[in-house]
UniProtKB/TrEMBL annotation:
<dbReference type="GO" id="GO:0034039">
    <property type="term" value="F:8-oxo-7,8-dihydroguanine DNA N-glycosylase activity"/>
</dbReference>
<dbReference type="InterPro" id="IPR011257">
    <property type="entry name" value="DNA_glycosylase"/>
</dbReference>
<keyword id="KW-0378">Hydrolase</keyword>
<dbReference type="InterPro" id="IPR004036">
    <property type="entry name" value="Endonuclease-III-like_CS2"/>
</dbReference>
<dbReference type="InterPro" id="IPR020476">
    <property type="entry name" value="Nudix_hydrolase"/>
</dbReference>
<dbReference type="GO" id="GO:0032357">
    <property type="term" value="F:oxidized purine DNA binding"/>
</dbReference>
<dbReference type="GO" id="GO:0006284">
    <property type="term" value="P:base-excision repair"/>
</dbReference>
<feature type="domain" description="Nudix hydrolase">
    <location>
        <begin position="228"/>
        <end position="353"/>
    </location>
</feature>
<dbReference type="InterPro" id="IPR029119">
    <property type="entry name" value="MutY_C"/>
</dbReference>
<dbReference type="InterPro" id="IPR000086">
    <property type="entry name" value="NUDIX_hydrolase_dom"/>
</dbReference>
<keyword id="KW-0326">Glycosidase</keyword>
<dbReference type="InterPro" id="IPR003651">
    <property type="entry name" value="Endonuclease3_FeS-loop_motif"/>
</dbReference>
<dbReference type="InterPro" id="IPR003265">
    <property type="entry name" value="HhH-GPD_domain"/>
</dbReference>
<protein>
    <recommendedName>
        <fullName>Adenine DNA glycosylase</fullName>
        <ecNumber>3.2.2.31</ecNumber>
    </recommendedName>
</protein>
<dbReference type="InterPro" id="IPR005760">
    <property type="entry name" value="A/G_AdeGlyc_MutY"/>
</dbReference>
<keyword id="KW-0408">Iron</keyword>
<dbReference type="Pfam" id="PF14815">
    <property type="entry name" value="NUDIX_4"/>
</dbReference>
Amino acid sequence: MQTEIAERLLEWYDQHARSLPWRKRDPDPYAVWVSESMLQQTRVETVIPYYERWMARFPTLAALASAGEQDVLQAWEGLGYYSRARNLHRAARQVMERFAGRLPADRAALESLPGIGRYTAGAIASIAFGLDEPALDGNIRRVYARLFDVEVPARSPDGEKRLWDLAAKNLPAGRAGDFNQALMDLGASVCTPRSPSCRLCPLNGSCRAFALGVQEERPVLTARAPIPHYTVTAAVLHRNGSVLIARRPSRGLLGGLWEFPGGKVEAGETLPQGLAREIREELGADIEVGQPVGVYQHAFTHFRITLHAFHCRLAAGEPRPLEASELRWVTPADLGQFPMGKVDRRISKELVRPESQGDEF
């Protein structure tokens, strides 16, 4: 039997559901999967244009499975957390091989695929296949932590167990997909991280945190360690009108993307000294460091960088991919054909600006 919470929330959702391109009366499991993968750690408004371009380029699971990794990464470029794209690609190929090209309508089978964890499996199973499966993303976690005044850290093992138990206990049979999406929408538009609109919430009469006046203190968060900062350098290495780019190994941070080679500056090194050392270690070549290209700030999940890019030219040796999976000499005008992370893309755009075409040394 549906709980009172489910009845009120579904009534609210029927009137206030967000209109999103992947929400259909008859959901396409592939489209739901793509959207849930993109929405991991990314806001809806950011995802929508990427989702629409992705579906135009890879309209079916079979189209994605048959695509090359570089095409997949290029379609994902700028969305970040690139392991999501690589996992989608790998999983699509496994679905073709293991499940005859059809995404399985089974939670355990879904979780056996790369990149599909407990939340994503529950979301796909409930939204795409109508199964009575709970889901627990950031928005839903926050709603339940407030509704039931969960006093332990939401991300702790105890907190996770309690929240998953609550998600399962309050799931209405037959409308799990709508209910999970309603919780997502409520968390995104009403039960927000800061200054929640409690007076407008359809569940305020049942919310324990609201009754106690502690809604701003839920969910309980664990203290985060300080985020380290690194100074790094990159070489825009010129030869005969082309520049050298390196492709990172497929696994790991920014896996499979192209970059201008370089790395961290060590204690006691100047920027040019650190860059010259990195190029010797990465490419087996000596360089002459010239004028700056620019200075770029970027934040990753667990650290931040300040990157200093320099125009450079070879002094001795022929570059070899000692740490990269591949090297290419490319004209600046053709750099757009190679998928890159945000900082390297900014550098590549700088290189084609008319005012940057002068003497680099």
